[in-house]
Amino acid sequence: MLEREPRIYVLPTMMTAGNILSGFIAILQIFKGREGEVTVHYYWAIIAILAACLFDVLDGFVARIGGQESPFGMQLDSIADIVSFGVAPALLVHDIVLKDIEKPAGLGWLIASGYLVCGAMRLARFNCLSATDDKTSGKHFRGCPIPAAAGITASLTLLMLWLDEGNKEIGPWKYGLAALMVMLSFLMMSNLEYPSFKSINWRTRRSPAWVLVSIIVVAFSVQNWQWMPSVLFVSYLIYGLVRPWVSRRVRQQIEIEYEAAGTPEDPITSDLSETSENKDAVLPKDAPSRI
What CATH number was assigned to the domain covering residues 10-260? Predict the structure, then answer.
């Protein structure tokens, strides 16, 4: 007996395909970067990894707003993530930094492979948690998500290349990337909770000032693309580290939790609940018997 074919939605799948292709382009550019002294290929590799981050955000957003989430999409997304956010960043940092670490022998290779393995395990754990508890996995990620880890690695590498005016050898501070990859490997497998921002949809509301600030930040990031991505990604990393000490009210403001339907902080649902309570208060005790 033939099993039922999984349902494949076009738009989310196209976004995920863009993720995979961006990761593959990044890997090709890293291999080309080995051939010469210029860093233009590394720049293109970093841009491709950051583009994969954008596609990763879009595929989930398109699937949620269209009600097109599916097990097939989740598995395909994980395969794309291990290519774009696992293999590509590990190769990038290995070629720029880790291959120069000679003592102890094999340490650079071990750091790169450790990052890749931890990223794969983090994706497998996420799939298992999503299958057992959709509500919890929708509010936050357990452990630093691998797209954020790749974005941090790529954006900081971009910053270092820009500060060193595009030289292939970017100075002694590049070894900080090796320590960063070790830390990211640990954070991906940790139990720290990072916001997923999955509650953002077409019904999400914010004040005009908040929207204006968001537009300014986006425009400023595009204009200063050499260093602003690193500021945004590192801010997300630091927020996850300090999040346990942030008050619930502030977390709701930052993570836009109260915009999700059905939460007590939602003004629509709270008004409806108050109205229903008031109606129940004025009804006589024997009201149910009269209905």
Answer: 1.20.120
